[in-house]
Design goal:
Strand 20 and strand 21 form a beta hairpin. The protein is built from 19 helices and 21 strands. The strands form four sheets. A six-stranded mixed β-sheet has the order 1-5-4-2-3-6, sandwiched between helices. Strands 16-21-20-19-18-17 form a six-stranded antiparallel β-sheet. It has helices at residues 4-11, 22-34, 58-73, 77-83, 88-94, 106-119, 132-142, 174-188, 206-217, 222-230, 248-253, 283-290, 320-334, 350-358, 373-376, 405-419, 423-434, 453-460, 523-535; strands spanning 48-51, 96-100, 124-129, 146-150, 159-165, 202-203, 234-239, 259-262, 296-302, 309-312, 317-318, 340-344, 362-365, 384-389, 393-396, 438-445, 471-474, 477-485, 490-494, 499-504, 510-517. The chain is of the alpha/beta class.
Length: 537
């Protein structure tokens, strides 16, 4: 019999036909429900992700569920503080929110984990298919202690994942996830599997709760959006790529006539594509919008768990590097909100230039949305008007501590309604005032022996030769280093505001390079210069 990995390769092959070959998917499901093979768990900020059937199985999800329950039973005072509860009894009373995206066996995997909580006397709320931001909203609105989100985000269809959020609704930090990893692997080999019966949980309407959360927080001006939609001057197209956001825009917007939703059918294989908000996947949105003749046009594509979004306005693609800057400028100048802007070190410096001229502090962090917690938390002294990262994630003022693609869509509509501009038109106005940046992202492989600490050390060594005032040859130009950041890899900012970031991969023999320049012809020379710094003698 073929291995699960081999079966998945057949499912993902171009010749796979859903009408005749779904028996292969049934084979995977059967193994995932019955296999007793252990797996190695590595639980990071984005949870644990594994191949369905070989690693991600009902048995192994029982283990992770039991490990999280044990985490609470054995927590130190410091760990309870990170979890946001005072003791195990508080967890039992406040409960856990459980749900999943549209992957294979999401419901069954949720049952396996929820059963462990229920047996420990913990109240369980079950929301079924839920996007990531709705877990954070549900924790806050229900007063729950934590959430279990069954999703691997934008990973291919053969993956599933499990993500844990503590009481503030944000991504769990390493002080929590390291313990989950340790306990899961400790219990994995000896776990005695028991079939899951009917789980005693309370069903919740996660979408309704999320809508109530948004209205309570008051950041989004729904009345402004409604008036805009009612005018009949907008074409709005949302591509859900068969993911968990598929019922959301009609509900949140009152099912307006201008809205077209695509790829909303049940399809846990995503039609054979990589389910991410990429330029390639935006083609269906572009085709629909390009045929429109309305004054205003907005298209977007979500990832399966609703924490990433990318836009198209009928004339151009608007990625998060650009939209984050638009949203910040709008909040600071049109809405006149007071606060800061938070961005990851790999994200465009376009917002830095805007914020500097507006006198607004920029909080630049290592890559990872968890790093925005100090400015997104309800108790933050300096609140982020917008927090975003170049990989299409965004949240903002008084919103969830998780990335929230639905918030991004609503913010885009409010901006258009208030300013009378399409996103591209708003972006052009910013270019006219602040100049333009051209971001780029690439990478290269290195010898396998460098993976881990040696690769980190080799990247960090770049900082020794790129201190402020140092000269770096970029093509035919010599650039002077203005600023050096070592938050996450090495980021070199030059006096002309162009920059390069060199980051090591933590798991692969790869180096990732991000660059941004004022001149589009400098993209390749910037990459080569960054590569040369890494390989210098």
């Amino acid at each position: 019999m073929d291995s699960i990995t081999q079966i998945w390769k057949k499912i993902q092959a171009p010749e796979f036909n859903p009408a005749t070959d779904m028996n292969l998917v049934e084979q995977v499901k059967q193994v995932a429900l019955t296999s007793q093979e252990p797996a190695k768990v590595s639980f990071g900020t984005s949870g644990w992700r594994g191949e369905i059937g070989s690693e991600f199985t009902l048995r192994n999800l029982q283990v992770v569920g039991a490990a999280i329950v044990r985490l609470y039973r054995e927590a130190t005072p410091e760990l309870f503080e990170a979890l946001g509860v005072k003791d195990f009894a508080e967890l039992q009373k406040r409960g856990v929110v459980v749900g999943h995206d549209n992957r294979l066996l999401g419901h069954e995997f949720c049952e396996a984990v929820a059963d462990q909580f229920a047996k420990a006397g913990v109240k369980v709320y079950y929301g079924g298919e839920m996007p990531t931001p709705e877990f954070s909203a549900a924790i806050e609105m229900l007063g729950a202690a934590c959430s279990i989100n069954m999703t691997p985000s934008h990973n291919p269809s053969h993956y599933n994942g499990i993500k844990f959020n503590p009481a503030d609704g944000g991504p769990a930090g390493p002080e929590i996830t390291n313990v989950i990893t340790k306990l899961s692997n400790e219990m994995m080999a000896t776990w005695k599997f028991e079939p899951v019966g009917k789980v005693d949980w309370e069903l919740i309407d996660a979408l309704k709760i999320y809508g109530e959360f948004l209205h309570k927080q008051g950041t989004i001006k729904f009345d402004v959006i409604k008036n805009f939609l009612d005018k009949g001057e907008l074409t709005l197209v949302c591509d859900h790529v068969h993911g968990s956001t598929r019922r959301r825009p009609p509900f949140l917007l009152g099912n307006p006539k201008c809205l077209t939703t695509i790829r909303t059918e049940d399809d846990s294989l995503f039609g054979g594509i990589a389910p991410e908000p990429s330029s390639k996947n935006l083609e269906k949105v572009k085709k629909a919008l390009d045929a429109s003749q309305t004054r205003f046009r907005l298209g977007c594509i979500f990832d399966p768990d609703g924490d990433r979004i990318r836009f198209y306005d009928g004339s151009r693609e608007v990625d998060m590097n650009s939209f984050g800057a638009i949203a910040f400028h709008y909040m600071a100048t049109v809405r006149k909100e007071k606060g800061v802007v938070a961005k990851s070190v790999a994200t465009s410096n376009f917002v830095n230039i805007i914020a500097e001229k507006l006198g607004v502090p920029v909080m630049e962090t290592p890559v990872g949305f968890k790093n925005f917690r100090p400015w997104l938390s309800r108790s933050a002294k300096d609140k982020a008007l917008v927090a975003f990262e170049e990989s299409d994630g965004i949240s903002g003022l008084n919103n969830t501590l998780e990335k929230d693609a639905q918030f991004g869509l609503l913010m885009a509509l409010e901006i258009m309604a208030t300013t009378g501009k399409n996103l591209g038109e708003y972006l052009d106005s910013l270019y006219a005032e602040f100049g333009r940046f051209y971001p780029s992202r690439a990478g290269f492989e290195v010898d396998k022996s460098l993976v881990g600490a040696p690769l980190v050390a080799k990247v960090n060594a770049i900082a020794e030769v790129a201190k402020p005032g140092a000269k770096v040859q970029v093509g035919t130009n010599e650039k002077t280093v203005k600023q050096l950041l070592t938050l996450d890899g090495v980021k070199i900012i030059f006096e002309d505001d162009s920059w390069m970031l060199v980051r090591p991969s933590g798991t692969e023999p790869k180096v990732r390079i991000y660059t941004e320049c004022r001149d589009p012809d400098e993209k390749d020379p910037m990459f080569e210069a960054a590569k040369a710094l890494f390989f210098r003698d």
